[in-house]
Design goal:
The complex is a heterotrimer. By secondary structure, chain A is α/β, with parallel strands linked by helices. Chain A is 45% helix and 13% strand. Chain A has 3 domains: 17-353, Rossmann fold (3-Layer(aba) Sandwich), CATH 3.40.50.11540; 374-436, no CATH class; 521-593, Helix Hairpins (Orthogonal Bundle). In chain A, helix 3 runs parallel beside helix 4, helix 12 (424-496) packs across helix 13 and helix 14 packs antiparallel against helix 15. The chains are: A alpha/beta, B mainly alpha, C mainly alpha.
């Protein structure tokens, strides 16, 4: 089987054997489990349990909020002991909304069953079940699987790629899962194939440093149409884009998705979770996580409940804090450092790495870049990392975009090879963040400009209206004067000054016409009066209320003011009523007519 | 338990700048040995004197800039510059020539531009050109190769060499003489064949010029070691050597009296190999992409040949490299590699999202 | 004619120069017409760069009037909300050196703030509503007002008119989604900044 070779890449020491000496183990159920509401890409889930309520294992505790979101489930039975912001596994060490479950130790399942007759179930039923089980990609990014598996009719899928590459050093979660659960994984792939309408090609991509896993898969793929493709080990072959290129020689267009070229790429751990969800009806509440690094006496894989604190794992792995140089969630190339061990394992956590100072020493101070180009040689997407570094330092964001900064997958190969120890990836992350922030601010400022312009327009309109009203009033006054004058002077003057009299008459006529036009219909007038009466009544009522309220506590002076206010309101009300009565009388005749 | 907040990647290769530079220093050894064997102690004295000057100058300047001296000296970059300059200077050049050249390299060409990583021009070549223009006489008297020394004359011994360099003693008659490129330049009206038969530099040589061919082979060997250990890529050196070979083949002119010399002669005399593997590959002042390096190398090769053949100087690597340094950022702008997922390569001069509108 | 020119070579030079001048002038004029680039008017471009808080700290009633004033040669360092980043961007656009922010007009805020009305203290006077340049305050006479935080530009203009001082400018907290890695500490920098004390 032909495979393609990506440019660049590095070969860091693999260090995978340590955690493969023992089979997948389990940890005692921790006393408390902390489930972050956002463990995936997309909107955070919405809690659907009350504080203090009892939950059973597998019970839904948070709903998906929106189309790109996944629900959360209780990993064990117990009570909800907190719904609040807690530190989660994130590079920032910041807090995020979480649900805490205090375990009752019974680990009691809620009633569950798989999709009935799933082999003949429709794709939408299966997708629904996957979405309900809270499954998000378990390889690292955490994209909701049901969304990924439903690319729509306009993008038919001809190739399904299962990612078993696991190219990062130290991590063996997928490797050990394949060794022990090959049959279930293949069953999961079968379900995926069914959902995607049986694509032409189904491939499992795996690096050739996992011969045992390949061997374990072989008997199960016989006659299933699934091919296991192994290729030379190189970091980062496990990136979605890289793997697709290695297996098919095709590239995902920049900014696009695999579905754009008719492919779906899914992590092999996720296929296992999908099998559990469809066949056994179990939501995603645990996953295989590698516990490794020399600072731990025991290196092995655990079937870990989602929400288990990292410290709980460390405690049961003979962790020696003195020896530990840093604590990493994920692998040594793309994993992020944890500032606290009290953060929970989430759906995307494939590894906890606690290396000793001998394995991963503290970073040396950065030296100047000598543009040696080793980074460009190592870059798997053919960027020029040293130029990106240069422009990042200069904060030249336009150049950064022209150098395709946003195609960087942050694999860390450039920093790995850099002889000057420059934290290149951090520069890129910082610049990406700054550019995104600037874009967001641009959107915000454009929006503010629009609102300001509208505000401006509104004010001008109001000003114009006011001006127009004032002009009309002035005109009316003048006209009244003119009419009076005209009446006094009589017709003689009008005849004597023939033409001018004509024009004066014209003006009068015009003004009268305008006045008539301005005059509102009696019904409108009536409504207006009624409104003003209602308003006056309300004011009166309020004033009275205030007065009774104030009676007890306030001084006479204040009381007097309030009494006056009540009186004023009453008078206003009277006035309004009088006006209304007048109006009705005036227009009675008209109505009869 | 509290842990450090550190960005990924956490693992690092064991390579560092100091090690790279040390390897480059070791790789100059075959060339230095060939120079010492064929031209006496002069080159070794140059190299040592230049290195001492460079280290002291670097330390002083780093001190003045308020930086950690030990941290900056550990990158060996000053030593590399000095060694390359020392190798390029004529053996037995007066001490002050070496010192002035080294100071120009380290102080002017390197630190005034911001130190390691910020110099737009190759420091060693800046030092060399400063000397070549300022002290043409000292810079053009080269030592006669061992094999061609007149009867009864030998290269000065170590003590004698030191007195020539430091005390200004004149070397014995016949110890200095022209280089192969000099000979070609100043042999007007002779057919190539005639030059080859009349001039011992060529008639006793294997492929290019007595002594010089070995020096060039020495640098070639060192360069191949560096290439093998992936200190640089093949693109620059190969492009430069190919350009020299093609140019000299094109203008070979059948060996007439106007011919500037054969490809073999151009490839293996003067500073061709040293230039190709040690000067042009200086990463700081060269281009950054592989395609860029092809253009950059070829540009240097063409310029070297043009200046050698029709210019005023017999050799031209220093000028060619400096001229190409000028062009490097320009070349970079138009030679970005094609990034994964893009249909075509972009230009660095594009602004932001421009590509999409096309 | 020819003889005169031959006699006075200065004439030949003069004619040649004038001729060349006319020729190239025409060429340039033609090119300028033919390859004219329709760019945004400079005021638009400057306005694009201003932060649109409409705060008036620059002394103009809004961002656009200030942009117009800059286009007419006003100083570009009068915008505290935009800060140094905006000054640099405008300097870059206009190809002038970037000055530091003029302290007379205020200081650059460390964090973005938005207005927040302590609602139980609000008396419903509508003064802040009238002051808000982007209509980000909701409310009616004698009824409690509130700020739409997403629309608020943090311009401060509503704080002053409030008769009961119930408006606070509160910093906007960074969310975990907005967080990104800070730039690494610089260990080896360009020499100009070397000896400058840490700001």
């Amino acid at each position: 089987m032909k495979t393609w070779v990506t440019p660049g890449g590095v070969h860091p020491p693999e260090n995978k054997h340590q955690s493969l000496t023992l089979p997948i183990g389990t940890l005692p159920i921790p006393e408390k489990l902390l489930i972050p509401l956002s463990q995936h890409i997309g909107t955070a889930a919405k809690p659907c349990v009350e504080l203090g309520s009892a939950v059973l294992k597998g019970q839904k505790i948070a709903e998906a909020a929106g189309p790109v979101s996944v629900p959360m489930h209780a990993p064990t039975s117990g009570t909800i002991s907190a719904i609040e912001h807690r530190p989660i596994a994130h590079s920032s060490g910041m807090l995020a909304p979480c649900i805490e479950i205090t375990s009752d130790g019974k680990d009691q399942w809620q009633a569950h069953q798989g999709v009935a007759d799933y082999k003949n179930a429709s794709a939408s039923t299966l997708l629904q079940a996957i979405a309900e089980a809270g499954i998000a990609g378990m390889g690292g990014a955490g994209f909701p699987s049901a969304v990924k598996l439903n690319p729509g009719h306009e993008r038919p899928i001809h190739t399904l790629i299962v990612n078993a590459t696991e190219c990062e050093p130290y991590i063996t979660a997928d490797d050990s899962a394949i060794r022990e659960r090959a049959a279930e994984i293949i069953e999961g792939i079968g379900i995926l194939s069914q959902i995607l309408g049986h694509p032409d090609n189904i491939m499992i991509g795996i690096e050739d440093n996992k011969p045992e896993a390949i061997e374990a898969l072989e008997p199960h793929v016989q006659g299933s149409g699934i091919s296991v493709r192994s290729f030379p080990t190189k970091y980062p072959s496990g990136g979605e884009k890289q793997l697709i290129y290695i297996l098919t020689g095709q590239e995902i267009p920049s900014g696009g998705l695999p579905a754009d070229i008719g492919m779906v790429c899914i992590n092999i751990g996720t296929t296992y979770a999908i099998k559990r969800a469809i066949v056994d009806g179990e939501p995603l509440i645990s996953r295989v996580t590698t516990m490794t690094g020399d600072a731990c006496g025991i290196n092995r894989n655990y079937e870990t409940l989602i929400g288990t604190a990292v410290s709980h794992m460390l405690e049961h792995s003979q962790f020696n804090e003195e020896r530990c140089s840093r604590l990493v969630m994920g692998g040594p190339m793309m994993g992020f450092s944890l500032t606290s061990a009290e953060v929970p394992i989430v759906k995307t956590t494939n590894c906890i790495l606690a290396p000793s100072y001998q394995e991963i020493p503290d970073d040396e101070p950065a030296q100047p870049c000598i543009r040696c180009g080793l980074c460009a040689e190592a870059c798997p997407v053919s960027l020029l990392p040293q130029q990106l570094f240069w422009y990042s330092q200069a904060e030249d964001y336009e150049r950064l975009e022209a150098h395709n900064l946003f195609d960087c997958i942050e694999c860390g190969a450039c920093s790995y090879v850099c002889p000057s120890n420059i934290p290149l990836v951090q520069y890129y992350r910082h610049s990406k963040g700054e550019i995104q922030k600037a874009r967001a601010e641009k959107v915000k400022s454009d929006h503010a400009r629009q609102r300001f312009e509208f505000h401006q327009q509104r004010m001008e309109q109001a000003e114009r209206d006011k001006e127009a009203k004032r002009a009309a009033r002035r005109e009316a006054a003048e006209q009244a004067k003119a009419t009076a004058g005209a009446a006094n002077n009589g017709a003689a003057k009008a005849t004597a000054e023939g033409q001018s009299g004509d024009s004066a008459a014209d003006i009068i006529a015009a003004a009268q016409a305008r006045a008539a036009a301005r005059k509102v219909s009696p019904e409108q007038q009536l409504a207006k009066f009624e409104r003003s009466i209602a308003g006056a009544e309300m004011r009166l009522q309020m004033a009275e209320e205030k007065l009774t309220e104030a009676d007890a506590q306030q001084t006479d002076e204040q009381k007097n003011i309030l009494v006056a206010a009540v009186e004023a309101a009453r008078q206003k009300l009277e006035q309004a009523k009088g006006r209304l009565a007048e109006h009705i009388k005036e227009h009675k005749g008209e109505q009869v007519d | 338990m509290a842990f450090k907040q550190i960005t990924s990647p956490h693992a690092h290769a064991s390579q560092n700048t100091g090690k790279v530079m040390q390897l480059v220093l070791w790789a100059t050894l075959p060339g230095l040995l060939a120079l010492t064997y064929h031209f006496g102690w002069g080159s070794l004295i140059n190299v040592l004197l230049a290195t001492a000057t460079a280290v002291v100058a670097e330390a002083l300047i780093v001190q003045m800039r308020g930086r950690s001296v030990s941290f900056y000296l550990r990158d060996y970059s000053a030593a590399v510059t000095a060694v390359l300059l020392g190798l390029a200077l004529p053996p037995l050049a007066p001490w002050w020539v070496v010192v002035v050249g080294t100071l120009s390299s380290i102080v002017i060409a390197k630190h005034l531009y911001g130190g390691l990583g910020y110099n737009p021009f190759n420091p060693a070549m800046v030092g060399y050109v400063v000397l070549l223009i300022s002290f043409p006489i000292q810079m053009t008297s080269w030592v006669t190769p061992l094999a061609l020394l007149p009867e009864g004359v030998s290269h000065p011994g170590l003590i004698e060499s030191l007195s020539i360099v430091f005390a200004g003693y004149s070397p014995a008659d016949g110890v200095t003489g022209p280089t192969p490129l000099d000979s070609f330049k100043y042999s007007d009206g002779l057919l190539v064949e005639q030059i080859y038969s009349q001039n011992q530099l060529f008639s006793q040589a294997g492929i290019a010029g007595v002594g010089w061919e070995w020096v060039n082979l020495g640098f070639l060997a060192g360069g191949l070691v560096l290439l093998g250990s992936r200190i640089f890529t093949w693109h620059g050196p190969v492009a430069m050597l190919a350009a020299i070979a093609i140019m000299s083949a094109l203008f070979w002119d059948g060996g007439s009296s106007d011919s500037p010399g054969s490809p073999l002669m151009h490839l293996f005399s003067g500073a061709s190999m040293m230039g190709a593997f040690f000067i042009l590959t200086d990463p700081v002042s060269s281009t950054v992409s592989n395609r860029g390096r092809l253009i950059y190398g070829a540009l240097i090769g063409v310029l070297v040949y043009i200046i050698r053949a029709w210019g005023n100087y017999p050799d031209a690597v220093a000028f060619a490299v400096l001229l190409a340094n000028f062009a490097a950022p320009f070349i970079d702008n138009y030679t970005l590699p094609r990034t994964y997922g893009h249909i075509d390569r972009r230009r660095a001069t594009e602004k932001g999202e421009e590509e999409k509108s096309k | 004619m020819i003889e005169t020119i031959a006699q006075y070579p200065i004439l030949a030079a003069l004619i040649a120069l004038v001729g060349l001048g006319i020729l190239f002038g025409a060429l340039l004029g033609f090119a300028a017409e033919k390859f004219k680039v329709e760019g945004d008017p400079i005021v638009e471009q400057i306005d694009e760069l201003l932060p649109q808080t409409q705060c008036g700290q620059c002394g103009f009633p809004g961002c656009r009037p200030y942009a117009e004033s800059i286009a007419n040669g006003d100083a570009i360092n009068k915008c505290p909300p935009g800060g140094q980043a905006t000054i640099n961007a405008i300097a870059n656009l206009l190809d002038v050196p970037a000055p530091e922010l003029d302290a007379e007009h205020g200081e650059e805020a460390e964090v973005r703030t938005v207005a927040y009305i302590r609602e139980d203290e609000c008396i419903g006077c509508t003064k802040c509503i009238q002051a808000c340049p982007v209509d980000a305050i909701l409310g009616a006479a004698k009824l409690m007002h509130t700020v739409i935080a997403d629309e608020c530009t943090g311009c401060d203009l509503c704080v002053e008119p409030c008769p009961v001082d119930c408006i606070d400018m509160l910093p906007v907290e960074e969310t975990i989604k907005e967080w990104h890695w800070p730039a690494p500490p610089t260990t080896a920098d360009i020499i100009a900044s070397d000896l400058r004390p840490q700001l």
